[in-house]
Amino acid sequence: MDEPVAVVVVDSHLAHLDRPFEYAVPADLADRARPGVRVRVRFAGRQVDGFVVERRAEAEHAGRLAPLLKVVSDEVVLTPHLVALCRDLADHYGGTFADVLRLAVPPRHARAERSVPADSPEPPAPTSRASLSGGPAPGDAPRGWQPYPAGAALIRRLEAGESPAAAWLAAPDAGSPEGWPAALATAVAAVHVSGRGSVVVLPDHRDIERVATALDDVLGPDSYVRLTADLGPEQRYRAWVRVLRGHVRVVLGSRSAAFAPVRDLGLVVWWDDGDDNLQEPRAPYPHVREVLRRRAALCGAALLVGGYTRTVQVQQWVQRGELPDVRADSVAALAPRVTVAGEGHLAARDAAAAVARMPSVAWRAVKDGLLRGPVLVQVPRRGYLAGLSCEHCRTAVRCAACAGPLRVTAAGGSATCAWCGRPDAGRACRECGGTTRRSRVVGEERTAEEVGRSFPGSRVVVSRAGNVLASVPARPAVVVATTGAEPVAEEGYAATLLLDGWALLDRGGLDAGVEALRRWSAAAALTRPGGPVVLVGVPPHAGLPPVEALVRWDPTWLARRELEERVSLGLPPARRTATVTGEPGAVAGAAEALTTGPHGPRLEVLGPLPVSAGAGEEERAHRLVIREATGRGGLSAAGVLPRALQDLRAARSLRKTPGELVVQLDPLDLDL
Question: What phi and psi values does residue 55 have, to the nearest 5 degrees?
Answer without folding.
Answer: -115, 140
